[in-house]
Amino acid sequence: MHKFWIPGSGQLHESVEAHGAAGSPNPLVTLDPGLFIWTILTFLILFFLLKKFAWTPLLQALQLREEEIKSSLQDAEKARNELINLNDESEKILIKARSEAQQIRSEAKSSAEKIRTDIRSKAEEESKRILEDAQNQIQVEKGKAISEIREEVVTLSMLVAEKVIGKNLSIDDNDQLIKHSLEKLRDYEA
After folding, report:
1. CA distances from 117 to 107, 123, 127 (A)
2. N or C: which end of the chain has fewer CB within 10 A?
3. Distance between CA 148 and CA 185 in Å, rounded?
4. Euclidean distance between the first and the last CA atom of the chain, given in angstroms as a whole number
5. Which of 55-69, 86-100, 121-135, 155-169 is predicted least confidently?
6. What is the share, in percent, of the chain residues with pLDDT greater than 90?
């Protein structure tokens, strides 16, 4: 009777012979040269068939898949590089636009400052001209007023002199009286 041990149990079990089976050995365990050759031959035929119809197409499919993955990775790398280039270009364009905007702002500021300065200088010139015109007008009016006052003083002086003296003065006396009155009037002006 053959006994064998089953892992996980602490007991030895009796073989099939102990349970009433015939004493023939298990064909899977016995060494039969014919079966051995047929098994090797079947394995080799199956191996070559699998190699031709399964393994080669499988390897080709894997190789094709590997090439597709490599191509996809290369395309992704190209796209990433293009994106980096586009980002760099857009950054350069933004920097250029900001620079141009700053330049335009500076030019506008300087133009506004120049216009403001021009307007201010024109206004100052205009105010000076108006002031000079007003002063000239005042001088002219002052001169007219003084001339009128002189004429009036002369007339009044002659009337007063006529009344005081009681007679009409001669032309020389009139001239002398007028000159004397004008000299006194000039003294009052100063």
Report:
1. 15, 10, 15
2. C
3. 13
4. 166
5. 155-169
6. 47
SS (H, E, C) 35-103: HHHHHHHHHHHHHHHHHHHHHHHHHHHHHHHHHHHHHHHHHHHHHHHHHHHHHHHHHHHHHHHHHHHHH
CA dist 171 and 176 (Å) reads: 9
SS3 5: strand
- 2 three-class SS: coil
Q: Which pLDDT band holds residue 186 (cuts at 50, 70, 90)?
A: confident
**Of 53, 24, 49, 47, which is closest to residue 39 (Cα–Cα)?**
47
Q: Give the model's pLDDT for residue 104.
A: 94
Domain boundaries defined on the chain: 3-189
Angle between helix 56-165 and helix 171-189 axes, rounded to 10 deg: 140
Element (H, E) at 3: strand 3-5
Q: Are 180 and 148 in contact (CB under 8 A)?
A: no
Residue 156's pLDDT band (cuts 50, 70, 90):
confident
Cβ atoms of 158 and 174 within 8 Å: the answer is: yes
Q: Looking at residues 152-166, what average pLDDT do you find?
A: 72
Query: Bridge-partner residues for 12, per DSSP?
Result: 5
